Amino acid sequence: MRLIVRALSLAAVAAVFGLPLQGQAPPPTPTPGAPPAAAAEPTPAPTPSAAELALPLPTPIAPTALRIRDISTIVVERVPTDNPFGKPAEVAAALPPKLPFTDATLPVGFFVSVHVDAAGKPLSVRRDRDPIPSLAAESLRSISRWTFAPGRRGGQPVDTWGAYRVDLEVEIRSPRIAQMALTPVAPGTPLPRPFDWKTDAEWLEGRQGPAPEDGSVPIDQVDTAPIPQKTPWSADSFKGPFSVKYWVKVDKTGRIERAIAIEVSDPVLLAYFRRMMSAWAIRPAQSGGAPVDSWNELTLGGQISSSNEIKQIVALRKNIGQ
To answer: By the 8 A CB rule, do 311 and 168 touch?
Structure first.
C-alpha cells in the first residue's frame, strides 16, 4: 500500500524555526535605542543546534492515505438470473394498424479488395464489408469488369492487392409490410446477440490483415496503388424480400427511445428503419393504469426496393482482407 504524506514546505520549516530561506537575505536587525536605566538587558535566545534541527516537527501533520481498491486482473461478472430488460406490465405495448414509411436516401460505404496484376487486370475480387449482400453476385460481376492502372514500385508495374472504399448513395423506397410483430421482453427471455455492424471508421481501424501469400507485393510496400480507370456498375438496383429484428425500448409516451439491431437481411436497412422509427407512435405499455417504459422485440418483414449509384472510389493504403 502506498501512502501520500503531506510534508511541510521549506517555507513552513523556516517559519517554524525562524530561519531564513536559502538565497534570501535575513531581514535587517534594527539598531536598538538606548535602553532605560532601570531595565535589565534581555538574555538572547540560544541558537538551535544541528541536532535540535533534526528533531520531529513540533506540530505533527497527520498523514493522508489514498483509498485503495483491490481490483483483480480479471473481473468475473455474474450473469443475472432474470433478463434486466424484462419488466412485467399489465398491458403490453402495441403497434398501430399501419406503420408510416417514406422514401429515404442514405450514404453507405462498400469495402472491397481486388487482386490486380502488373498489366492492370483484376484477377480476383473479395467483398470485405458489403452493406447490400442481396446484390453480392452482381457487385462481384461488376468489379471483375473494371480496368486499372497497375500499382507501381520503383517506377515498375507490380502485381498487388488493391483495397478500396466504394461510396454509394442508396435510395430506399417505402417497403410493403407483410408481417409485423411487437412482443414484450419478459424477465426470462434469453438475451440475444446484437447484430455486429460497426461504423466504417471503427471497422477500418480494426483491420490488420496479414500480408498476401500469393507472391504479390503488399499494398503498403508499393509507391502507387492500382487506380480504377473504368468502373462499370450493374449492381445498382434491388427488389425483393427483407426482414429485420430489433429490441426496442418504447417509452411511456409511445416513442421508440432505443433500438438494438438483432437481425437484418441487408445492413443498409439498419439506418433506414432507425430513421423511420423516429416518426412512429406506439401505444405504450401500462402498469397500474399508467403508461410505463417497456422493452419489446420488433419484427418486420415484406418486400422492399432500392437503387444506388457510385459517388466516388477511394484507394486505401492498407490490407483490409482476412
So the answer is: yes
Q: How far apart are CA 111 and CA 130, in angstroms?
A: 7
What pLDDT digit, counting tens, does each position of 251-260 carry?
Answer: 999 999 999 9
pTM of this structure: 0.72
| Cα gap 129→67, rounded to integer Å | 47
Report how far residue 306's alpha carbon sits from residue 71's, in angstroms, rounded to the nearest whole number: 52
Residue recorded with cell 461488376:
142
In the 3-class helix/strand/coil scheme, how is the chain assigned residue by residue?
CCEECCCCCHHHHHHHHCCCCCCCCCCCCCCCCCCCCCCCCCCCCCCCCHHHHCCCCCCCCCCEECCCCCCCCCCCCCCCCCCCCCCCCCECCECCCCCCCCCEEEEEEEEEEEEECCCCCEEEEEEEECCCHHHHHHHHHHHCCCEEECEEECCEEECEEEEEEEEEEEEECCCEEEEEEEEECCCCCCCCCCCCCCCHHHHHHCCCCCCCCCCCECHHHCCECCEEEECCCCCCEEEEEEEEEEEEEECCCCCEEEEEEEEECCCHHHHHHHHHHCCCCCECEEECCEEECEEEEEEEEEEEEEEEEEEEEEEECCCCCC
Collect contacts of 41-45 with beta carbons under 8 A, ≥24 apart: none
What's the pLDDT score for residue 37? 47
